[in-house]
Every structure is written in structure tokens, then in C-alpha cells.
Prior knowledge:
Elements: E1 8-12, H1 17-28, E2 32-37, H2 40-52, E3 57-61, H3 67-81, E4 86-89, H4 105-133, E5 136-141, H5 154-174, E6 179-186, H6 192-205, H7 209-218, H8 228-239, E7 250-253
Parallel strand pairs: 1-2, 1-4, 2-3, 4-5, 5-6, 6-7
Helix pairs in contact: 1-2, 1-8, 3-4, 4-5, 6-7
Amino acid sequence: MNELADKVAIITGGGYGIGKQIALLYGKAGAKVVLAARSLEPMKQTCAELERAGAKSIYVATDVSKEAACAKMTDETLKAFGRIDILVNNAGISGPTKRITDMSLAEWQETIDIDLTGTWLASRAVLPAMDKQRSGNILNISSGAGRRGYPMRSPYAAAKWAMIGLTQTIAGEWGQRGIRCNCICPGAIEGDRIERVMRARAEALKQPYEQVKAGFLSTAALNRMATEEEVARVALVLVSDAYAGVTGQTINVDCGSIMN
């Protein structure tokens, strides 16, 4: 694998979950990887795995909802590797599982700040470096909740819908400068995070956990959840030169839950 040879990729939220799998796959494909997240220990562990696989990597403590932190992320990347070819906006939180009237403004705002404003801030921070190169890729990780309404999860759904619009806007603004921007909408993904989401939903709706889980699976044409590795493989092809003509697009990775 050498699809990303000599490329430098920043992955926010790259210490665990989908972000970690993207980081590992990018490293195997030849990229120099920068992990940016709030939790240090998962990033340290992922960097150790990357280095065992022969990939160069660093990590930068980053709260993407803070402008200064995104600027530092960019500066540390340029200091270490001299360029930025790829930004994967993967950092995000699930937010509360509540009806709108039961939710506080602070709960709404925290989700919007991290999931949406964080994507905008991180993109804004790296774009000048990409512009100087006249090349670059921004990949936004949205959600199936960005494709249709999601009762009990209003700030999450609002942020993920907006990420698709932001993707198309960045693609339109920066395409003439050689910069592409695309988006992935994962559906329910096997792992600890979806388990927490389903249990929170079961509690909020006062339904058995098994009933809630069956509801998640019932919409998938393949009758299963997608995996983190399956999302990572799509994340690799979208930033590779083989897809140089693709920008402003959103792809679902959800085992056929949403077909549009």
C-alpha cells in the first residue's frame, strides 16, 4: 500500500474508534500521521501502533472547539512535517439523548461547538497551508443522522446535517485552488460508542435495550452494522489520487440503511 506516500494527514479524534482506524490505514498507505484530540493516552497508544507499523506520527492535544487549539494543531504539523495534505474532521461527541424541551442550552451548544464549529475551525486553520501548496483534501465525518431527522438527538442531527452543507461549500470555495472536500456518513458502527448510544436511547424512551438494538439493525439492507475498518477504507479512497475528480460528495457507509 502506497496510496498516500509522502502525504501528511491530520486526523482529529484520532485516538480511538473510526479515527484510530483511519489513522492506522493512512499510516499503512504511507502517510505521515498527526493525531489531534483532547484525550492524550489513546493518541499515545495509536502513535505507538503506527510506529510499530513503520509509519511516522505525532500527536497534538487539541480541543477542536477552540480556535487557538486548531491553530496550534496546524503549527505543530507544519513544524514536524512541513506540509498538510489531508485533514480528516472526525472529532465529535454524541450529545444528549433528550427531547428538545428537556435539553439545556449548554447541552445543545456543546454538541454544536465540537461537532460543527470544530469542523469549521479545523478546516479554516489548515486551508492556508493547503492553498500555498495548491493541493489538499478535507474529509468530514458526518453521520446517518445528517441524512434524516433523529428524534431525541436534535443538536447532533443539526450538526451532522450542517457538515454536509459545509462540505459542499468548502468544495465550491476552494476547488479552483486544487483543494477537494468530501464527506462520509457512517451509520450505526459496531463498537463501544454505539452501545452507549443505544443504551442511552433505551433509557430515554423507556424501552428494552434489545428492542432499541433491533430497531437499529432493521433498517440495514445487509442486516448488520458497519465496522470502523469499513469506514476507514472509504476514507482512504476518497483522499487518494485515484479519486482526484471527486469533490463535494457525501457517501453513506451504513450497510444500506439510507440509500440516497
